[in-house]
Amino acid sequence: MCIDRKRLSITKKTRGEAREWVREMQEKISLGMTYEASQTRLSQFMENWLRVKRYSIRPATDRQYSDAVRIYILPSLGELKLIDITPKTIQAFIDSLSDAHVGRRTIQIVRLILHSCLQHAVDLAVIKYNPVEIVKAPKSDKRDLQVWNEDEVSLFLRSIEGERNENFYYLALTTGMRQGELLGLKWPDIEWKRGVIMVKRQAVRVRGGGYGFAEPKSKRGRRVVDLGIGSIEKLRTQYELINIGRQAMKESWTENELVFPTKRGTPQEGTNIDREFKRLVAQAGLPKIRFHDLRHTAASILLSRGIPPVMIAEMLGHTMGVLLSTYAHFIP
Q: How confident is the model at residue 208 (pLDDT cuts 50, 70, 90)?
């Protein structure tokens, strides 16, 4: 049997099995099977796709995709030829992840990766259609937001007085800024007379280690955040502390104009902040929450105080739809 003027052959035990194989191949050829699709394994094609894809995605997304491919996709589907991957194959795979109690969000990411990879195969005319197209992903889990109330926030702030990152946590709780946005904040981003922060970038982990800077998470991420009197005072204190640190480190200081740098002036790593935050929460005896939950805490407290939702949406860089779907139960 030939396809794309190239010969396909296989050894079967019986003539019946051979005839069945010929019938299946003829059916696949009629559906647009190419020679490349009949010879290329998903693992090979996905490896090349990832190599190209990583130039258009953030390093964190690259790591997320690579982990999902390594842990979930390749062990189950990697040895399959592209032509053997059908909607039924994908659906059975997705169902197996659900049966193994893999989280819905993880399954959504796995489906997204498969869809993008196989769509690339369609675009290159390797396969005729995308088998993931008609396979539905499970809906996201609705995770209850973990937030502190105002008394717990006050207790936390009292417990961290004197900590090197005291002002960092205060800004997180009063502005709702993301961790990366605070770590990427520079002094020229603060307009003292207007009392606002111009969110222009976020600190991100780069390939090969270390941290760099990137655009905010979304278009709405570039925004203006109003500062209260307390936040302005904390920033003035931070400015003085940075000047003292700069003078103490002398030649060892690397100037990046960062508001919340390391002792040497370089960007702090988010993983270190997460570890420190976990320790500080335990020391304060407070309910365990993630650093990102400080953003939820800021929004929930402002809403409970009667601040207009539209103002909070602008502060967080959200649409009104996202804000209401996430925080509606905090509106009095």
A: low
